[in-house]
Specification:
single chain, Protein Transport Mog1p, Chain A, 18 strands, about 40% helix
């Protein structure tokens, strides 16, 4: 979703452009484009700051240096060696990788947890380099402009989030047309994904890696897809691929068939997969959420750095974003959104309500929530269309002298009224972390161990993660069955 938003933003910025002829570095063919190389670099640089703000950079210099060195090695043998390439590991458990025009490539620590070797990671990075070298971002921006979708496409994410009750009581008019726009752009990109797979295989071969490692990468994604489906079925919910590589890529069966054929065309003596180097690099890497961004454990959310905790009502989901925390109801039409109030907004609750909420009318009352000073506000404000909408918000003076804004949001007033009880319950759970909370908020980390004779079942007994045996099979490439040899190094998840 984030990848799509970025492409939409760039397209909207260029919607007024008249286009020019450029030569595609991969095909050697001229193509009409709204983005020349200079514009690619400028737009990529601009969107790069948005990516860093949204995700955060993984705070591990050794991992960052390793990924950058591998990326630079691959880019040096690509079709656009003249670009200044940038490779960044993002601090998110999402299984994702993406690229921006101009040479900006990102992998998440989430996807790194599922790779088994340096060659596997090189396949992921090579694929994303392929998007840049083949000018797929520029092609998509041009396609969106030609179809009149520049501005519309950029608003799709906002519409979808509003439909989930995350960003407020948004109007859903035009959602059908926006969904059509999103489908058009997604289908356009799917054809490019196979070309990026082929380029990834080519860049692997040019760097001495077996291009068949692209097959391993696709198999990892297929296993992840199967695991997600199994988990959803066991929990009685629909399968979602949002926020992963699976969301914007073609059928993994289609990809597997295509890349198997392509990989066989590259002949060479490939011996070093870099498995030991890779597994040493990821030792101690965070698995799942990071302590810096807060941790979800069941219904509880803990933020050790800020010192607060909150508990979601039964069956509600915890969605941890870079700038806010959302507790979302099962119907996805209401949520409690928790935000840290910027220091420049001050500490006075009345002032914060006036300047941040900007109400048209309402009343405030002082309160105490688990010993923390608070002020509740009920009233109305005007939305972007000038329509009056209800507002329910609470300002809390939290631990470490931080101030938080807790806001109940919903698709409409009926949803807000229907969820009033759980929303108040969630708000009432906001607290300074107790000794019990601190003990529960220990982060999960990766390490490698020799595979024991008791197999994954034995390793699962010592792991804190849910569905431990299935997840350990998944991160080691054995979700479909089979076993490593006793003594072979495998990845495990442990509590710090």
């Amino acid at each position: 979703m984030r990848t799509f938003l970025l492409s939409g933003l760039m397209a909207s910025a260029l919607v007024a452009g008249c286009g020019t002829n450029v030569v595609n570095p991969v095909t050697g063919q001229a193509e009409r484009s709204v983005m020349d190389e200079k514009t690619e670099i400028a737009e990529g640089q601009k969107a790069h700051q948005q990516v860093l703000q949204e995700y955060g950079v993984y705070n591990n210099p050794a991992v960052q240096a390793y990924v950058n060195a591998l990326g630079q090695r691959l880019a040096a043998h690509s079709h656009r060696t003249q670009l200044q390439w940038h490779f960044t590991v993002l601090d998110t458990p999402e299984i994702n990788a993406f690229a921006l025009p101009g040479g900006y490539v990102y992998v998440t620590r989430g996807i790194m947890a599922y790779m088994d070797s340096e060659a596997d990671l090189a396949g992921v990075i090579g694929h994303e380099i392929g998007h840049v070298t083949a000018r797929h971002g520029a092609q998509r921006a041009t396609s969106e402009q030609n179809a009149g979708l520049g501005v519309l496409a950029a608003s799709v994410l906002g519409a979808l989030l509003e439909s989930q009750g995350i960003t407020g009581a948004g109007k859903m008019a035009g959602q059908v047309s926006q969904t059509v726009a999103a489908g058009y752009v997604a289908s356009y990109g799917r054809d490019q994904e196979l070309q990026a797979d082929a380029l990834g295989a080519e860049y692997l071969a040019r760097n001495g890696f077996d291009p068949r490692n692209m097959i391993d990468v696709i198999k990892v994604l297929k296993d992840q897809e199967r695991f997600a489906a199994d988990q959803a079925q066991s929990e009685g919910r629909a399968v979602s691929t949002q926020g992963s590589w699976l969301a914007s890529h073609p059928s993994n069966d289609q990809r597997l068939a295509a890349i198997t054929q392509l990989a066989s065309q590259h002949k060479g003596n490939y011996t070093d997969e870099g498995r030991d180097r890779y597994q040493k690099t990821i030792q101690g890497m965070a698995f799942g959420e990071s302590a810096d961004q807060g941790l979800s454990r069941g219904r509880n959310y803990y933020h050790p750095a800020l010192g607060f905790a909150v508990t979601a009502p039964a069956s509600w989901q915890i969605q941890n974003g870079a700038d806010k925390l959302s507790l979302v109801n099962p119907a996805h039409d209401a949520a409690l959104v928790v935000r840290l109030v910027p220091a420049q907004a001050g500490k006075d609750p009345a002032t914060i309500i006036r300047d941040v909420i900007k109400p048209t009318q309402g009343r405030s009352e002082s309160a105490s929530i688990n010993g923390l000073q608070a002020m509740r506000f009920l009233g109305t404000r005007q939305d972007a269309q000038g329509q009056s909408q209800p507002v329910a918000a609470t300002v809390i003076r939290g631990p470490k002298d931080n101030v938080y804004l807790l806001q109940a949001v919903a698709k409409d007033s009926a949803a807000l009224q229907r969820t009033e009880g759980p929303l108040r319950e969630a708000e009432g759970s906001f607290r300074a972390m107790t000794a019990q909370d601190i003990a529960a908020a220990r982060p999960w980390l990766l390490r490698t161990v020799p595979y024991p004779r008791g197999g994954f079942a034995e390793l699962a007994n010592a792991s804190p993660i849910t569905s431990a045996e299935r997840q350990l099979r998944l991160i080691n490439g054995y979700y479909g069955g089979g076993e490593p040899k006793p003594g072979q190094t495998v990845k495990v998840v442990y509590t710090h």
